[in-house]
Structure formats: structure tokens, C-alpha cells
Amino acid sequence: MSKRVINRWFVVVLAAVLLVALSIYKIPRYQKEQALMALGYKEEEIKAIFKQNVDKDILANSYYSEYLAQEVQKDTFNKKYLGLYVVRDFVNEDTFTLYDRLAQTGKYNSDELLTLFGGAHDYELMPLFVFDKVDAAAYADDCRNHPENSASSVVLTNDYLIPYENTTDVKDPSAIDAFVSKKFYLGQYEPNKLVEIPQRYGVPNLFLQSEGLAAFTSLCDDLAANVEGEGIYAVTAYKSYDDQAAYYETYGLDADMYTTRPGYSDLQTGLAVEVVSSANARVSQFGETASYKWMQEHAHEYGFIERYPQNKKSITGEEGNFAYWRFVGTELATKIRESGLTFDEYYMYYIHGQETNANSNQGN
Fold first, then answer.
1. Same domain, 136 and 246
2. pLDDT at 307 over 80
3. End residue of a domain, out of 51, 82, 113
4. In a domain, 238, yes or no
5. How many Cα atoms are found within 13 Å in the side-chain-facing hemisphere of 49?
6. CA-to-CA distance for 271 and 301, rounded, in angstroms?
7. How confident is the model at residue 27 (pLDDT cuts 50, 70, 90)?
8. What are the backbone angles phi and psi of residue 87, rounded to the nearest 5°?
9. Number of domains the chain is built from
10. Which pLDDT band holds residue 61 (cuts at 50, 70, 90)?
11. Which residues fall within 8 angstroms of residue 229, CB to CB, at 6 or more apart?
12. pTM of the full predicted structure?
């Protein structure tokens, strides 16, 4: 056989191989394009889907949303969070961070996370760091049933906070940012820097830790100078483990309905104080005074936070209390105020959560 004939056959065979290879590539792509069109995507969107290399995942999950179709065409698209673009109308870096942090808790799988993010706003997801694992579908439905919820008011029908179960010991009870709740236990800790509150600033026989007292007296002086005709004074402060135990026992079998178990009271830190206004001596009516409004704006400048805000009982486990303030230091108090979160949420997300993640990474 001549060399020319061999070359001709080689070209024919090569052409046939290329044609088959092209068909193998083109037919599946064509089929994918048709499948993507059937889901609702347009030509330019489909090109972007192939460019972002998310065609397999979209088709495998039958993902479609107008928001995803819009975002997949942008350079800022992050395919790691493909499902979030489907269940949300808007995502940003904060959404991604929240998703990652919640995933790192190990409580929820990817399907449960998408169920939660699809049914709840970020401010409704933050409490999940406080709660033990919840049923994702039930929680999402609960949030949907409360369209009135906002960053300043989260009300849930079901109880997700299980007090006194799966508790954690407070790491450093003497720290000014020590977090105490019905999930974080102080034990029989006694502060060693207690100082009596001068009677100018409170009723007799009340005590606070020295650093908290200095901040409290400064706050009282400045409030009196800025709020005409009013001042504040303390009516409740440090309560020891034994005092709380005795108080708890007075309620008998119904004690959990009315007060906190010993070792779980924020008052035991010596950093919490309940106040009233000179214009109205009722604790329950402190929220109606000019003093309260001033403290809302300025208490963080002295290191105090409103420990149990209104309409956050679902998260804190405590009824809202305008009069109850906790000293945590000016830096942390400012961060908590700016975040709009309860101390519970802020601590679990930014402090305890980060400590847990750091320890987990070290273990790996």
C-alpha cells in the first residue's frame, strides 16, 4: 500500500475519532442546556452556569430562583453557597459567615441549614447558637408564623431554650465579661472584690465588684446631671449562692416558674444591678422614665448593657426587665449595643463560639 493511501486512511480515522469525541461532548452539553432551559434559565444565564461550573449541582438539585439566575452571572458569585442563592432573596458575606458558623456547631447538616436559612431571617437564626439542636423545619415554620419579628424583637411560639440541661461551667467567673445564664453555671463562686454601694447610690446593704461599682456611680452622677428632675439608685445587686438558694426554696415546687436556681443567677457575679428612678420607685415602671431612655443611649459608655431586653424571652429565658443592667466593660458593652444582639447571642456567637472553633482547629 502506498504512503499516500496510508496517509489518507489516517486522516479519515482521525476525523472520525474527532467527530465521535465532539459528539460525546456536544450531546451531553446540549442535553444539559435543554434541562437548564426547562428549569427556567435563559441563554446568557446558562452560559454563566457553565462558566461557574455549577451545572451539575443545579441539575442534580433542580435549583432555580430568579436571584440565583441573576447572581450566577456576576464575578462575586460564590459557588460554595449555591443553595443559599436559591432559598434567599439576598446574600452577602455576613450571610456566608453566619452559615459557616452555624455549620461549625455540628448541629445541622446541609439540608437542615438550607431549610433554616430559607425560612428565617439572620436575626432569627442567631438564637440557634444559644439553643440546643432544634428541628429545622419546625423552627423555620415558627419564624414564618411571626412576620412581625425584627432585629429588636424576636418572638417564637415554641420553647427552644431548655434551662438547666447540657449546661457549661463558667470559664472565669471573676472576669467582667463572665457569661451566666440558665445554661452557664457559676457554682458556689464568691467575688473577692465586693464593695458596698454608698447609700447615695442605692438602698442599704447592697454590694458590687469594685470595678462595676466605680462605673455605676459615675453613670449615676452623669445621669442626674443630664436628666432633669431625675436620678437612679440601686435596689438589687450582689446575691450569694446561699442567698439565691434560700430565695429559690421559698417558692417550693413552683420555684422554676418564678426565679433562678442557685449558681445560675447573674446577680452572683457582683456585676449586675437593678435600678429605679427617683421619679418612680417601681421596678416594673422604670421603662417609662426619662432615666431609662438616657440609659438606653449612654449606659454602654460606662460598660453597662440591658441584660434582659423586652421581647427577647425566647432567647434569654427571662422576661424583659427595663431595670436590670449588667456591667461588662465599655468595649464589650459598645459592641453588644451596636450588634443589636442579646448578651446571650453575642457571647455564644462571637466569644464562646470562637473559643470552641479555635479549640477544634487545634485538635485537628
1. no
2. yes
3. 82
4. yes
5. 28
6. 16
7. low
8. -90, -10
9. 3
10. very high
11. 279
12. 0.87
* CA distance linking residue 107 with residue 132, whole number of Å: 8
- Which cell numbers hold the place of 93? 458575606
Long-range contacts at 219-228 (CB < 8 A, ≥ 24 apart):
219/295, 219/298, 219/299, 219/302, 219/304, 222/298, 222/302, 223/291, 223/294, 223/295, 223/298, 226/294, 227/290, 227/291, 227/294, 228/290
Residue with cell 445554661: 183
Write the DSSP string, 72-126: TTSTT--GGGHHHHHH-S---HHHHHHHHHHHHTTS--HHHHHHHHHHS-HHHHG
Q: Which residues contact 89 (CB under 8 A, 6 or more apart)?
A: 67
- Whether residues 115 and 200 fall in one domain: no
Instruction: With respect to residue 157, please indicate whether it lies within any of the assigned structural domains.
Output: no
pLDDT value for 31:
87
Task: Show Cβ contacts of residue 336 under 8 Å, excluding neighbours closer than 6 positions.
Answer: 300, 305, 328, 343, 346
The per-residue b/e assignment along 113-131, b for 16 or more CB within 10 angstroms, e otherwise, is: bbbbbebbeebbbbbbbbb
What the block records as the C-alpha cell of 39 is 428549569
And the C-alpha cell for 359? Answer: 479549640
Host domain of residue 50: 3-82
Task: Write out pLDDT tens, residues 115-165.
Answer: 999 999 999 999 999 999 999 999 999 999 999 999 999 999 999 999 999
User: CB–CB of 349/321 below 8 Å?
Assistant: no
The three grid cell numbers given for residue 339, joined into one nine-digit string: 450588634
Q: Checking DSSP bridges between strand 184-185 and strand 168-169, what pairing results, if any? A: parallel
Intra-chain end-to-end CA distance of the chain, in Å: 67
